[in-house]
Design goal:
- By secondary structure, the chain is mainly beta.
- The chain has one helix and six strands.
- The protein has one helix at residues 80-91; strands spanning 14-20, 23-31, 36-42, 54-60, 63-64, 75-78.
- It is globular.
Length: 116
């Protein structure tokens, strides 16, 4: 009987591993040519992290983007295969017109995504 091969997540632009008294946290950052990206994170306090699942936030530039057709929040409890599907959707988003959405996700509203 053949075992189903586990699909691996796409190669990220950057990977961050951090450790604290609360446990290990892994964050993968993806950047796309349309200006969008994603922060994909797993840790003890992320949505699905304790079960080995991932949480994803859509980024525009350096900030979390709360206004896409994909989501208006973070998406949790994601398998690696589902993360790949969402990354494909983000990469296909049309670039924003110049100046649209500037300042979104600023200080106190998300900024750099950090789930700890």
């Amino acid at each position: 009987m053949k075992e189903k091969m586990k699909e691996k997540m796409r190669k990220p632009t950057k990977v961050y591993l951090s450790y604290s008294i609360y446990g290990e946290k892994e964050q993968r950052i993806y950047r796309f040519s349309n200006g969008y990206g994603a922060s994909v994170i797993r840790g003890p306090f992320t949505y699905g992290g304790p079960d080995g699942l991932w949480e994803l936030a859509v980024l525009y530039g350096e900030d979390i983007c709360y206004s896409t057709v994909i989501t208006q929040d973070v998406i949790g409890f994601l398998s690696e295969a589902r993360v790949n599907e969402i990354l494909d959707q983000i990469e296909e988003l049309p670039p924003r017109p110049e100046g649209e959405g500037e300042g979104e996700g600023g200080e106190g509203e998300g900024g750099e995504f950090n789930a700890s």
